[in-house]
Design brief:
Blueprint (H helix, E strand, L loop, with lengths): L4 E3 L2 H13 L4 E6 L5 H13 L2 E6 L19 H9 L5 E4 L3 H4 L18 H4 L3 H16 L3 E5 L3 H13 L5 E5 L19 H6 L1 H16 L4 H13 L4 E9 L14 E9 L2 E9 L5
The protein binds adenosine monophosphate (AMP).
Adenosine monophosphate binds next to helix 2 and strand 5.
Length: 288
């Protein structure tokens, strides 16, 4: 197992990417906040399957955390991350920028994305997507990759980034890769590390409730209000859980649907003590 090379300054990064390009290599980008797990590594492998150089960025971006959120305690595990990337094989360069280089004194430009950034995470975490869109555009500009890889786990984030890329004519392709789950269905997340053994068991209710929604749709239920109510009851049977939202929506616009008449996204966010977890899945009504 060989750890990948790490660069932390922008000039070095640009030089490495320029030499890869001069050698005719396609460049992939996998933006992360570190504390890497199989979900992140699946994005790295997706990039490796299409690109000869994969730039993995590790940066806990302060501007996407609100006051009182977990920026300070977010897991920072660079050594373990490099070991994990070492298992993925060659063609990886890790970019770990310093916060002062990303946000130098006087930094004052932000990216605001419209309606798809408004509901769900946007409403529960004011300013979150402004921070996300800004850092992602900065990383796109810093790295100059051909293709960027994101996870469906953060579905709304991927949609916000697609919108930004289209609206601002950013010359990059965006790929959204499937959510990687633990064997029992829990979506992998760096924040799972916060969970006690008991909370880890309770957290399974996110996936269970998404599967319940799927089962209801397969059984012929179509009314979104009734489906959401069943999910609410299932989640609230757990005294420690606080629901931020349960949504059934159009996958492109995120507008709520009243009837599940075509491919629909079910998405939810739940707080378990001080840990906030999100998950989603598509619901596909069988042809009648
Ligand atoms: P994060 O480090 O949490 O900011 O995530 C970095 C990237 O990994 C984002 O594109 C996430 O959507 C993606 N990601 C996180 N968890 C998973 C997962 N379980 N499966 C697939 N992708 C994921």
């Amino acid at each position: 197992m060989q750890r990948p090379a790490v660069v932390s300054n922008l000039a070095e990064l640009r030089q490495a990417v320029a030499s890869a390009r001069a050698a005719g290599k396609r460049v992939g980008l996998v933006p992360t906040m570190g504390a890497l797990h199989e979900g992140h590594l699946s994005l790295v492998r997706a990039s490796q399957s299409e690109c000869s150089l994969t730039v993995v960025t590790i940066f806990v971006n302060p501007s996407q955390f609100g006051p009182g959120e977990d920026y300070d305690r977010y897991p920072r595990t660079l050594d373990a991350d490099l070991d994990a990337l070492g298992t993925c094989g060659g063609g990886i360069l890790v970019f770990v920028p310093r916060t002062e280089e990303v946000y130098p004194p006087g930094f004052a430009s932000w990216v605001e994305v419209g309606p798809v950034a408004e509901p769900w995470e946007g409403r529960c975490r004011p300013g979150h997507f402004r921070g996300v869109a800004t850092i992602v555009l900065k990383l796109f500009n810093m790295v100059g990759a051909d293709i960027a890889y994101f996870g469906q786990k953060d579905y709304q984030q991927a949609l916000v980034i697609r919108r930004m890329v289209e609206d601002l004519n950013v010359p990059i392709e965006v790929r959204v890769c499937p959510t990687v789950r633990e064997p029992d269905g829990l979506a992998m997340s760096s924040r799972n590390a916060y969970l006690s053994a008991e909370a880890r068991q309770q957290a399974l209710v996110l996936w269970k409730s998404l599967c319940l929604a799927d089962a209801m749709v397969c059984e012929g239920h179509r009314g979104a209000a009734a489906i959401r109510q069943r999910l609410r009851e299932l989640i609230q049977s757990n005294a420690d859980m606080r629901i931020d939202y349960i949504a059934l929506a159009d996958p492109e616009t995120l507008k709520p649907v009243e009837q599940v008449s075509g491919r629909t996204l079910a998405a939810l966010a739940v707080r378990l003590g001080s840990t906030r977890l999100i998950d989603n899945r598509f619901l596909e009504p069988p042809p009648s």
